[in-house]
């Protein structure tokens, strides 16, 4: 079918292939003639739309006509505008009980605290940017030594560095978020052991991060250790000492309820809300049904669809917590003279997405249909079974950093334009929204969801494939980004407040 109209009440349909001018095409409800060349993934009007009238997709308002639009005309930034009128708040969507799923398991690392890891890295974390180079040197020396030959259960050492930790207040939200993020990484079950390296005089002092004493954790500062070279030697020795106390880790069969799946999209296109995102939603529903946790993120990218999630909340407190984050973001962007509608990137628009409302309606499809059980602050521990939402920016590395700090042990990342994202210590599966992308970037994409657009597979079938891929990845199968060695530079904590 060359056109896909998602709801009978929608004013637009999505071109499933390039349309030529004058081409006669039809949806399930309308026949029309394309007025111009319309690229695949872009929208076409299925009926006359007066200037100023609302335009719907997914049965929801995505904006308003800035000029009169004829049937068959391309609908995009030249004739569709954003308006934060609040009209969408009248809509609602109830959660549904996901279909039963047979018990599933994976091969994971059961830690002493009961958590389950999917990888077994050594983490060299930093309290401040000033210790980043030393952390990288320590990780490099460990990886170049015979340690990994002696301990083949280890996946290697990774330096987790960042650009902040000083030039900031020693109290308030900015340092609280940084410390919560670092503490979350230090406690992550995908790390076998962790060394935290500081400079010594930074605002973000090691003893303020709040990491509990543990036989798998150690820390040091460069100033107290005698400088760069001596700290690198001491750091290597400290990690070797930690490893010496660790029993050889073996994967054991654990229930899928131990999965904490992060749900992310980036480089979205007009197919995202039709193929990869709803297919990922099917997998997320399955994990929730199995007793696990699936967590949506990116508050700016649910803006315009937050009412749909709030309607699925397990109680008023959960809904109120979600809507409070939306209000915070409205004030946040206004304070910086920005707009939440600035979110669709040039690449998003080239792929057919016009407004933040349209983008968000497609993005929430990743969350499936399960009830919303919890709303988390950035990097807060993901503790409640079921579907959760974490307050993060839309920027890919910042949002995934928050998810991993919260405990995500696998991440699924949908993309329509193409993404080369990877993360450590948590593996990231990338899902393409269209087959052309899968064929163009085969070394970066793990699962092709484009078969939904061509009619060669259903959303449910691809969702089942995604679930299989998640379980295989959790059991140790390497993702494309892992094969490429990505993931060390994508640790980007959310930076809030002034740099002083």
What does this structure look like?
The protein is α/β, with parallel strands linked by helices. The protein has helices at 132-144, 147-150, 173-186, 222-225, 228-244, 276-289, 306-310, 316-335, 346-350, 356-363, 396-406, 435-440, 451-454, 459-474, 480-483, and strands at residues 3-4, 12-15, 24-26, 31-33, 43-45, 54-57, 60-65, 74-75, 80-81, 105-110, 116-117, 121-126, 156-160, 191-198, 217-221, 252-255, 260-265, 293-296, 372-376, 386-390, 410-415, 428-432, 447-448. Helix 3 packs across helix 11. The longest helix has 20 residues, at 316-335.
Write a brief structural summary:
29% of the residues lie in helices and 20% in strands.
List keywords for this structure.
seven-stranded parallel β-sheet; alpha/beta; 500 residues; 15 helices; single chain
SSE topology:
Layout: E1 3-4, E2 12-15, E3 24-26, E4 31-33, E5 43-45, E6 54-57, E7 60-65, E8 74-75, E9 80-81, E10 105-110, E11 116-117, E12 121-126, H1 132-144, H2 147-150, E13 156-160, H3 173-186, E14 191-198, E15 217-221, H4 222-225, H5 228-244, E16 252-255, E17 260-265, H6 276-289, E18 293-296, H7 306-310, H8 316-335, H9 346-350, H10 356-363, E19 372-376, E20 386-390, H11 396-406, E21 410-415, E22 428-432, H12 435-440, E23 447-448, H13 451-454, H14 459-474, H15 480-483
Parallel strand pairs: 12-13, 12-14, 14-15, 17-18, 17-21, 18-20, 19-20, 21-22, 22-23
Antiparallel strand pairs: 1-2, 2-5, 3-4, 5-8, 6-7, 7-9, 10-11, 10-16
